[in-house]
Amino acid sequence: MHPIRRQRLIAVIFVVVLATVAVGLVTYALRQNINLFYTPSQITAGEAPEGTRIRVGGMVVPGSVQRVPGSLETLFTVTDGAGEVKIAYTGILPDLFAENEAAVATGMMREDGTFGASEVLAKHDENYMPPEVADAMEKAMDKAHEARQ
Amino acid sequence: MARTRPIMPAWFHRLGSPKGFYSMTTPWLPWLAAASLVLLIGGAVWGLGFAPADAKQGNSFRIIYIHVPSAFLALAGYYVMAVAGAIGLIWRMKLSFVAMKAAAPLGAALTLISLVTGALWGKPTWGTYWVWDARITSMLVLFFLYLGVIALHYAYTNGEAAGKAAAVLALVGTANIPIIYKSVDWWYTLHQPATIKLTEAPSMHPSMFQPLLVMIAGFYCLYALVLILNIRAEILHRERGSHWVVELARSRRS
Amino acid sequence: MSAPDVVPTLATGRAFRALLVRDLTLAFRHRGEMANPLIFFVMVATLIPLGVTPESRQLAALAPGIIWVMALLASLLSAESLFLADYRDGTLEQLVLSPQPLWLMVLAKITVHWLVTGLPLTLLSPLLGIMLSLPAAGFGSLMVSLVLGTAALSMIGAIGAALTVAISRGGLLLSLIVMPLYMPVLIFGASAVQLAVDGMSPAGNLAVLGALLAFSCLLSPFATAGALRVSLHG
């Protein structure tokens, strides 16, 4: 083969092989849970490891927030609709933390099944809307609830 | 060489010559200045004064009228810089290196603005100024990439080599941009997914979304204006010995 | 491709091997220089307990990140010398002018650079793991992540080294332009070790690290070759 063509062939093979390897590895990695984020239903199913730092996220269940009197400790439950996890946190909660809102907690699972959080962050959803619209939507939801009952 | 390719239209060659670019853009400037002034003032008054407050975040959400356009342009500006560098490397067009040099500090400034406004917004919303979240961190990396391109440019004493070297670095850096943009999908993190989706309807209420669009358009106009002014200044500096610049200076003085 | 009329007199594979052997021999003759990044690596590891705490539980928590950051800095320190000697004595000019594909020659030089810095750093890392009381579960992951990661760092560092080789006192500038590109490698490398320490599978992170290596292999030789041409001929 002509040396110049041979050089080009080497370059092409080099590029194709490496691109394939890169794509293959990325596809493999995407199938793993790479960021240690667990949903409450995964935790109730026992998929989360005990004694290691993980993150849990979900909606704060309405009426579940209890503040322990005389301390900064707060207990609340988060849900993803299928499972629930009780979270214990000592410290000041962010302003946006509220019932029926999403929150992400970092910490460890305790032996009694509660999640001991060392950090709680409020995650607001990606919908921006004025209060009137939010109210209207809430009413619509309530109506739908009543209709079902 | 660009001249041996008749496929390119005439304006391309005109843009390629520094003098042609200078005379071609002179009439654009007042229009761009007027457009950016009207859009920015209009969008700011609309967004800050008349758009309704967000149901959950209250008034603090209004910072997105600065944050989102500057973050948009910080990213787009990197592509402007990298594409200008690539054109320079492929067609050996000197002007594109000038454009690349002009785009670098502009992009760095916009990245800094989006980082600072994001931090100010994060405090009331997330309860902290800074979170080591994928997207914020990649924005910081983008800022460092801009700084690297600027620093490399200044380190070379030979102007043309400086342009080429910075172009290579900018192109290598573009490998990081898709990672920045996709990071939200890859990591489930604090930063909410992009509010404006190109494929779906925006998840923002129209009364809040419209002023944002006006602000984005205003930022684009301002970006174009400042970029062109930057390029013109650099052209005058590089061509300061040439006949037409001396003529220009003389005509201004009289 | 710059001179398609010139037919290479030496087979490409042979040229690659010759350069590999030459650079390895050179590195071996300058053993002192080769050892510098390694000594740096170990010495900074001594500073951490002195500066932070000798308490082993806290050190263990910091160890994966610290070892990785130091491996990164050691690799960065050695990147400057990748092309410098060849640039000063004119060898680099010969390589650029030779009819052999420059990117392959660059690949040979980067391979040698990794063999004399990244590989020894990896082999030395268990020692640092012991010094910083890294839990036993992390050692395997540490070495695998460092093998993949330092190779990627050598690849990325080469681009910066080629861009700054003609600049006097380019060392600091090199770190400035290369460090942002290093960050993804550091993130996945350190978290792979952390995962293993926490008793979880680091496979996903190691796979990403491998992908980063493959991607940098794909990009770096060509970018470095282009950068060398710019540095030498403007």
In short:
The complex is a heterotrimer of chains A (149), B (254) and C (234). Chain A is built from three helices and seven strands; from the N terminus they run αβαββββββα.
How would you portray this structure in words?
The complex is a heterotrimer of chains A (149), B (254) and C (234). Chain A contains three helices and seven strands, in the order αβαββββββα. Chain A has 149 residues and is α+β, with helices and mostly antiparallel strands. Chain A has two domains: 1-32; 37-123, OB fold (Dihydrolipoamide Acetyltransferase, E2P) (Beta Barrel), CATH 2.40.50. Chain B has helices spanning 10-16, 18-25, 28-50, 64-91, 94-126, 134-155, 159-174, 176-186, 206-238, 243-253. The longest helix of chain C is centred in the C-terminal third of the chain and has 31 residues, at 203-233. With 234 residues, chain C is mainly α. Chain C has helices spanning 12-29, 31-51, 56-79, 81-89, 91-97, 102-131, 139-164, 171-197, 203-233. The chains are: A alpha+beta (149), B mainly alpha (254), C mainly alpha (234). Chain A binds chain B through residues 30, 34-35, 37, 57, 92-98, 101, 104, 121-135, and chain B through 52-57, 61, 64, 124-128, 131, 186-190, 192-195, 203-205, 207-208.
Number of domains of chain A: 2
Rg of chain B is 20 Å
Average of per-residue pLDDT values of chain A = 77
Question: How many strands in all of chain B?
Answer: 0
Salient structural properties:
heterotrimer; A: 149 residues; alpha+beta; OB fold (Dihydrolipoamide Acetyltransferase, E2P); 5-stranded mixed beta barrel; 3 helices; elongated; C: 234 residues; 82% helix
